[in-house]
Specification:
With 170 residues, the protein is an all-alpha fold. It is built from nine helices and no strands. It folds into two domains: 78 residues; 87 residues, Serine Threonine Protein Phosphatase 5, Tetratricopeptide repeat. 30% of the residues are buried. The model has no long low-confidence stretch (mean pLDDT 94).
């Protein structure tokens, strides 16, 4: 990427971030419109722009519109920082659309690929939600407790052990 293109991409991302920073003060569909205006500046096959379009629709509760856009962004190839976010957001969207099994599979795969990094906690949280929505409350509690155990200053070993026992019970 040349210097001008890199500067343009940084400026575009800064403007996208500004929309997201003020999203709480905007109507949901105004967020979509603002993001769409920025997305229109980029190439139609730019993964990061497609991801932002999906995220805006997800934010506005338009999950059925967000799903194909998330899939397209992932297919186009997101960077290492955005790809796990897109997976979590798509899995959450799938859960909201009642596609629990696919959501669970995506999140389990994410956790297998990112076992000990910044995506472990968020991935586990959304996996617990997907499992619960699917009717697997015991597994959901086990996943949530196992993830929480890493953040406990005391009793982390006990909570982790109980999570394992909980998952093993029928």
């Amino acid at each position: 990427m040349d210097v001008d293109a890199d500067r343009d991409a940084r400026d575009w991302q800064r403007r996208v971030s500004a929309v997201w920073a003020s999203a709480d003060e905007m109507a949901d569909l105004d967020v979509v419109a603002a993001i769409d205006a920025l997305v229109a500046e980029r190439d139609a096959d730019e993964a990061s722009a497609v991801f932002e379009a999906a995220s805006a629709r997800d934010y506005a509760g338009l999950e059925s519109e967000a799903e194909p856009l998330y899939r397209r962004a992932i297919e186009l190839g997101l960077d290492d920082a955005t790809s796990p976010r897109a997976t979590i957001q798509l899995a959450s969207t799938l859960r909201n659309l009642g596609k629990y099994d696919e959501s669970v599979r995506m999140l389990e795969r994410l956790l297998a690929e990112h076992p000990d990094d910044e995506w472990t906690g968020p991935g586990a949280a959304f996996l617990a939600l997907a499992l619960s929505s699917r009717g697997d409350e015991r597994d959901a509690a086990s996943v949530a407790l196992a993830a929480l155990a890493d953040y406990l200053p005391v009793y982390s070993a006990s909570v982790r052990s109980y999570a394992i026992v909980l998952a093993a019970r029928e």
